[in-house]
Amino acid sequence: MKTPTGAILFLSFLFLLDLYVFSSVKHLSNGLSEKGKWWINVIYWGVSILTIAAFLVFVTTNRQDLNHKFRTHLFAFIIGLFLAKLIAVLFFLLDDGRRIMQWAWVQGKSKLTDTPVSEDAISRSTFMSWLGVTVGFGLFGTLLYGFGNKYKFRVIHQKLKFSNLPKAFHGLRIVHISDIHCGSFFEQKAIEDGVKMINEQKADLILFTGDIVNNLADELEPHASIFARLESPMGVYSVLGNHDYGDYVRWPEGGTEKRENLKRLMELQKNMGWKLLMNEHEILEKDGEKIAIIGIENWGAKVGFKQYGKLHEAYPGTEQIPFKILMSHDPSHWKSQVKKDYPDIDLTLSGHTHGMQFGVEVPGLKWSPIQYVYKEWAGLYEEDNMKLYVNRGFGFLGYPGRVGVLPEITVIELLG
């Protein structure tokens, strides 16, 4: 297979990046013996050459010719190492900026005073070099550690109080899951354990907020029988996420295969016993009282995400229902449309962000890079008596791991 032009450009950039990073690594090894320096050279360039070789294998080999688990981890390793070096370079650039300014200052002073320039005056900062290496490769080590967290499902209990909740539904237990991404899985036993954990919560109702696959309906086939085991007295309801439409696949012209893919995905969910809501609603009744479950197709406010969702079609018929739950995959929908145009929707459930599968969540500190794109990215948000809950995702996409943001099974208890 021919190497794509983009891959050649990336490799060229990677090689230049290696040269620049190595200049700082070499500086840090100055105090070592000749043998020590030799080992540093061998290890550094050995890893770099292996990374380049791995990347070439990745881009020149057909997807089906590589083991899925191996391919996924190989890609993550390459990108992780690249990001580590890129972050380290930020510190080296800061140091080099300092050196340039210091060199200009010393050169000017030298000419004025007619004194020679000392090499020490413009030498690299050992501190900044160590800081860059430590931060960059500390990140890489963290990402490797995160490989072991991808199936460490965490159950989060959330009690939500609503003054308008019908008495019959006080104490209703909802399990909220999102972003399964079946195409990323390669360990059936782990998925079975996750489904077992969900059923152990004894939910009255299970709601899934989209992205059951990465791209293709075929990804769900090997796991459909497992997810069909999900059970709750009031049923399992689902909606579609942005990945469920096959929008990220190059389909033959005409669109027939893409339509058939979506049709197959819908059939599989039906066969699993799930009720897929396609811009429609369902009324749940208990002891003569009612609540509404509204489910729409994907609707994202961010650039690049298509808006299939039609809340204006799903909402009619729920006006007189005292309590409403909306299932909408993308949390950006909440402030962009729901809060403005449908203020009587009490609770919106979303997913989509995965919490970026990377962040810090400890008492007093909740941070992830995804918050600079999505203001509502994980957990509970409340405004004007309306609530949004963003699930951190059951599965994973791209990076086969999680750091600080574990896969989530949410148990929501409604209180009056």
Shape: elongated
CATH architecture of the largest domain: 4-Layer Sandwich
Biggest sheet strand order reads: 1-14-2-3-4-5
Task: Write down the domain tally.
Answer: 2
Structural class: alpha/beta
Uncertain segments are none
CATH class of the largest domain: Alpha Beta
Number of strands: 14
Rg result: 26 Å
For this structure, the CATH topology of the largest domain is Purple Acid Phosphatase, chain A, domain 2
The CATH homologous superfamily of the largest domain corresponds to Metallo-dependent phosphatases
SSE order: HHHHEEHEHEHEEEHEHEEEEEE
Mean pLDDT: 91
Q: How many strands, what sense, and barrel or not for the largest sheet?
A: 6 strands, mixed
Strand fraction equals 15-25%
Spatial separation of the terminal alpha carbons: 62 Å
Q: Determine the number of helices (DSSP H or I, runs of at least 4 residues).
A: 9
